[in-house]
Amino acid sequence: MSIDLKQDHFSLFGLPRSYALDEAALEAAWHGLQSQVHPDRYAHLPDVDKRRAMQWATHVNEGFRTLQKPLSRARYLLELAGVDVGAETNTAMSPEFLMEQMEWREAVEEARQAAEVEDLEQLHTRLLRHARAVRAELERQLDVEHDHAAAADTVRRLMFIEKLQHEIDEALLALEG
Amino acid sequence: MALLQIAEPGMSPEPHKHRLAVGIDLGTTNSLVASVRNGIAVCLPDESGRSMLPSVVRYHADGSIEVGQGALKAQATDPRNAIVSVKRFMGRGLKDVAHVEAIMPYDFEDGPGMLRLRTVQGVKSPVEVSAEILRALRVRAEASLGGPLVGAVITVPAYFDDAQRQATKDAARLAGLDVLRLLNEPTAAAVAYGLDNAAEGVYAVYDLGGGTFDLSILKLSHGVFEVLSTNGDAALGGDDFDHRLFCAILERAAIAPPSLEDARRLQMKAREVKELLTSCEEAPIHLRLGSGELVDLVVTRDEFADMTRHLVQKTLTPVRKALRDAGLTPEEIKGVVMVGGATRMPHIQRAVAAFFGQEPLTNLDPDKVVALGAAMQANVLAGNRAEQDDDWLLLDVIPLSLGLETMGGLVEKVVPRNSTLPIARAQEFTTFKDGQTAMAFHVVQGERELVADCRSLARFELRGIPPMVAGAARIRVTFQVDADGLLSVSAREMSSGVEASVLVKPSYGLSDDEIAEMLKSGVEHAGDDMMLRALREQQVEAERVIEATEQALAKDGHLLDAGERAAIDAAIEHLRVLRAGSDHRAIKTGIDAFARATDEFAARRMDNSIRTALAGHKVDELEL
To answer: B288 in helix, strand or coil?
Structure first.
């Protein structure tokens, strides 16, 4: 058994290169590949085989993780298309979006300091709905319009949103004890 | 007389030579060895027919070593040489077990990487003591199976960190065992249960052992056992129930503080009573102490349940956290498999049933299920897969996040908890100072945001970085965690190719309690941590701007007149004062104000450097 480590993750899992994803097919393909390359299959073989198995299995897990999550999948698609999302350097966002983010943030901060679990949960739900809409936009930009520049912008917005979601989760956990 | 085996010409009489492999459950209280014989996993008993080997090692003055029942009996009379519960010391330093020292009579000393125990046969490490238990089981298995073993699967608690896993693997090697895999105890139990019952769906494994608690959530589908999440408590087990009962007996019997020997006898009695209350409504205690005092009382099942209710509740916190990490509700769990002798207690079964809204699954022996699952996995790993039916796959996870220390004592998480193994993750860092040629790395494990709250795993240094301006070097640090959950780390400066790597060896500095707290507090104090993190970040930032400005003053101070210079010196002093405070917002505002105060200086420096660069060049030679 050997796998081509150079092919892209979509080819690795035998999936079409698109943002829209058949999650069940991805999971089945992941299990299928791991049942071939997992180090458990090579535990009785020489060290060199074990090492190779670990590299393969690591690569397969990395591919699965990248494709499984919508945000990392979108970033990966853009990377394949030669577009640098530039998340660390390019933070030029529209003033409207930044303003909206600030409002979200203030709402979260207020609810957190007031220990308002219900408010936080409401914010969480609203943000989930918002994220869903942004993802739908992303799917259109990537799969239909192939507008990579716009998609890169949407990816950056989605990163802000996910970070905020994470902050709400943490605040909720802290309040629940 | 044996029947003669007739082979076809050209065919080996043994086309499928069975390779002898075992699964070993190395427990805090008891250990077992199991193997697959004729397609069925069985625990291998000793010559008296007992499967369970008490995890006790006794060192005799004559140089002999006794493991098991005999050693257990000596624990009250020869406490310093009859070592019990050595699993608690695996991969631990002296500081980690300070709280145990009070109740355990051992003669500890600190050693490199791990504490040591002074015995009549000299100084022993927990790895050596554990190796004696494993050696006894290996000898038993080889006698029972009739040949040398090709390898063993050793089980470890799912919450075990890198240091504890490494110590376990070292002990196995010391015992002459080839470790096919370190397998998480709840996962081993899930294999035994899942294969036995052809189970499909999402299951929880509730594993309460002698000194440890694990909760794993697994998805079973078409022969794949995928661990979705795992959580636990490093300092919670059946022993704590014994101890609570022991304390209650002391209170109620109203006796003087007992001698070490009497305390041991009462502790052993408490365990007996706990076990009796599983099948009886009440248990009598009638014990004459060495002091001459008589303990004579009766404990009922309800009284015992009452006095240990808080311990049962304590197990439900990791359960909730594991569910949350898996993104599931209790209703979505198809079955709850009970593992570990302590889960026999009726009030634990009731609490678990109430939490999940269903009766837990107890149809497999909770003492044996881990060893049986490990044996099944060992059989597969040894290459004894006969048919496709034997085909299954375990996808396990790392229980605690791995990270690196960054500026200000903060943790940068590199591998998040509950990542499927094996996994490799890389993170890039840069230099902090101009001309920096070395970089120190501190590898930690845990969920908290501050290094001080996580377990320190290793420190190493990358040297020979070519001198560059601060922030120009690109140092890529790669974490690789293998299928045993063991970590190796390497660092590489990308432009020069300078490389350093380290096999993670434990560097202790945290107590057991703190470890148990790690996951828990990571969540409970998330608010505090965030504030503290914000503060450290601003402090680091303030240091950074002060340092940069001082360097600039040293180099280009001549660009300022005396008044301007004094103003900047005052601004530096002011920011230093703010930096020493604890208000991150004030520091941030101070940094902004400082930036404004040094704007003019920065502009002049920029002009100056452009002029210097332009000197001697024509404008059209420059690519601007």
So the answer is: strand
Q: Is B87 a catalytic residue?
A: yes
Beta bridge partners of B480: B424, B488
Q: Which of B87, B269, B274, B368 is catalytic?
A: B87
Tokens representing B117 are 């125990």
Model pLDDT for residues A11-65, shown as the tens digit of each residue: 999 999 999 999 999 999 999 999 888 999 888 887 778 888 898 999 999 999 9
Give the pLDDT score at B16. 55
Query: What pLDDT, on a 0 to 100 scale, did the predictor assign at position B58?
Result: 96
- Judged against a pLDDT cut of 80, whether residue B508 lies above it is answered with no
**Spatial separation of the C-alpha atoms in residues B435 and B207, rounded to whole Å:** 53
> How far apart (Å, rounded) are the C-alpha atoms in residues B486 and B162?
6
Sheet architecture: strand order including B499-503: B423-429, B475-481, B487-493, B499-503
CA–CA min distance B582, chain A (Å): 18
Residue ranges of the domains in chain A? 9-68, 95-176
The CATH number corresponding to A95-176 among 2.120.10.30, 1.20.1280.20, 3.40.50.150, 3.40.50.2000 equals 1.20.1280.20
Say if the Cβ atoms of A174 and B524 lie within 8 Å: yes
Q: Which fold has domain A9-68?
A: Helix Hairpins (1.10.287)
B416 touches chain A (CB under 8 A): no
Q: Which of B132, B185, B449, B484 is catalytic?
A: B185
Q: What is the pLDDT of residue B420?
A: 97
Residue A112: list chain B partners with CB under 8 A: 527
Residue of A nearest to B520 (CA): A177
**Span(s) in chain B for CATH 1.20.1270.10:** 527-614
Quick: pLDDT tens for B373-413.
999 999 999 988 765 556 799 999 999 999 999 888 899 99
Range(s) for CATH 3.30.420.40 in chain B?
Answer: 21-237+310-395
Predicted complex: ipTM over 0.90 = no
Question: Of B488, B499, B326, B477, which is closest to residue B422 (Cα–Cα)?
Answer: B488
Fold designation for B527-614 = Substrate Binding Domain Of Dnak; Chain:A; Domain 2 (1.20.1270)
The residue from B96, B162, B170, B207 that is catalytic is B207
User: Could you report the per-residue pLDDT of A103-156, keeping only the tens digit for each?
Assistant: 888 888 888 888 888 888 888 889 989 999 999 999 999 999 999 989 998 998
Interface of A with B (CB under 8 A): 31, 34-35, 38-40, 43-44, 54, 57-58, 61-62, 64-65, 112, 170-171, 173-174, 177
Q: Is B25 among the catalytic positions?
A: yes
Over residues B425-454, mean pLDDT: 88
B423 at A interface, C-beta within 8 A: yes
Among the listed residues A27, A22, A54, A15, the one whose alpha carbon sits nearest the alpha carbon of residue B219: A27
Higher pLDDT pick, B157 / B211: B157
* CATH code, B21-237+310-395: 3.30.420.40
Give the model's pLDDT for residue B103: 58
Q: Among candidates A29, A27, A62, A30, which has minimal Cα distance to B423? A: A62
> In this structure, which amino acid lies at residue A30?
W
- For the cut 50, the answer to whether the pLDDT of residue B618 exceeds it is no
CATH of B402-522, one of 3.40.50.720, 3.50.50.60, 3.40.640.10, 2.60.34.10: 2.60.34.10
Contact between B222 and A31 using a beta-carbon 8 Å cutoff = yes
Whole-structure pTM value: 0.80
pLDDT for residue B430 is more than 50: yes
The first and second tokens of residue A51, run together, are 């090492």
Q: Tally Cβ neighbours within 10 Å of residue B614.
A: 12
